[in-house]
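Homework help thread (please don't just give me the answer)

Our assignment gives two proteins as sequence + structure token strings and asks us to describe the second one. The first is just a warm-up. Here they are:
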Amino acid sequence: MEEKKPERPELNAELRPQIPGYSPAMEELRREYAKVQGIYEAAIREINARLQTLDDDFSFRHRHNPIHHIESRVKSLDSIVKKLHDTGIPISIDNAKKNLHDIAGVRVVCRYVEDIYKIASLLLAQDDISLILEKNYIENPKPNGYRSLHIVVDVPVYISQGKLFIPVEIQIRTVAMDFWATLEHGIRYKTTDEVPQRIVDELRACADVITETDYKMQEIFRALQQVHDRDDLSAESIVEAQKGR
């Protein structure tokens, strides 16, 4: 049985977009959000620093950087208001803090599929990082073909009053997955009409092709790693032989 969604309350007239205009209620929300926005930015900096350290250490130990690049953002107030309204939650900053896990968002773009799980595992192994939620859209893609690993974690942030734990949503995907998701998002948002089913099917087929390519590239990388490992062993043998002379 399909879960019944809560009825959406009518958006307060003072919170509706006004061009131009002044909304006292919206201005009050902006003041309240400004008090906490910096905390979410600090949580993003903390996660980014840890991810960069993991990538550097992994590169030193295994001669491979699993992370291609990292992007991050703190959700805008307009997006927060819209999401609260769409989910039927009364609009307030307190409700946003309690109910929205993606106010702070980090996107980690990896080189290969196995790198996604390596990075997630290494991050979650840290004793002050707690997993709140996981959605694996790699093993269970969305109907449109979208693939990515989503995790929400609590990360410690130290402020003058003490330590806070702030939720951060981390999307981890490959370069290929990110390529598809970026273009698919652009295609959908360039039209105000519903995307025809034929286009939906073609986008999903493209996602399947990209996924197949993702795994082939990973196999090629593994094969080359084995070649490099043999070369390293040969070099070590030569050095040891010279020492024994």
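The one we have to describe:
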Amino acid sequence: MGKTTKTFTYIIGIVMTVAMVGSLILPMISSQVGVGESYLETPQPTPFPEPTMPPPPDTAAIDFDSRYLHRSGLFTIGAPTGWSPASDSSSADELRAGLNNSEVQSVVELRINKNHAGLSDAESLSDFLDKTWLGHTWSGYTGWDETSRNILGGEVVQIDFNVRRGRSHLIARQESWIDNGDIYSARVVTAENASRELKYLLRGLANSVERIGEYVGAPYDWDAYFDNNDKHMVRFPSHWEVTDAADGMPATVEGDSIILVVGAADVALASEDEAMDWTESWRSGVKARSVRAVEVAGASGYQVSYQLKTLDGALASGLLTMLRGSDDRLHIANIRMPDLDQDLLAVDPAEYPWLAVLDSFRLLPDLEVNIN
């Protein structure tokens, strides 16, 4: 083969190799034509839709006639029409009641705090309502900012807020004051577009607070049972439980092995002897031990201690408080302790602190409660 022929053969081989490689690469390049720039663009996030604010509540349809009784039995507030109980709590130092209307994104809340610091004026109260205290009260929200603070009439501390819950932006106003040595704080939260309605709700809430005078000085951290038909109330440690109750029927509360039953009967007792006799007729196995006449918050009646022997021979000791109500019925609170053999009218109450539960029994004929 001549030199010219070899050279021609090499050229043909190179051309064929280039053609084969091109047939593979060119389709890949052509598939990217026109998309190179858009492929390199930074992707834009899809914007989240802003939450829609509900229309403001119609204040013409809102009143505070319904009364809400706090679990402690120490106070009531007016419940605005359309708001329902959402949470309440009680501790040794604070009572809190909260009502919610989810349709209009609104909460109304009242707090009563023990005034351990002895605050007596609005200036010292304003200092007490510092960032730490406020932060505790806003713990259920995503975030909050205080926007203004004023002292009204030298007595009321008024604070405005912007509040966030999730992606919802809300507004709030709180008014705090001192009354009979305790610190009161009324607060309303609404959607941003309901500032006028917020003021209406706050005024109605603050003006509706009523303490139950029969329990002045009573511990904060007890719960209460109130029969709205028979109009009697009893308070007990918060870890006790109401196990059976209905308005107008006997109610049972249990805790720490103690059994408490409250109810009413169409009975008239005219003497201590009659009180003893009625106690022994209450159920079989009961023996009355001692009796004394009592008057509790204007209601007169008797206390009778008794011994109860069960069918299996076990002994229990109990104490009855029986008060004559304005309805001419006998209102009865009956507390007993199993495996105890004592005359509970003759013991030192300090040794049996649960007897203080019986001491809390009150007749409240004028208390009207719609929400309990």
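TA reply:
I won't write it for you, but here's a hint about the kind of observation we're looking for: The domain at 223-363 is CATH 3.40.1000.10 (Protein Transport Mog1p; Chain A).
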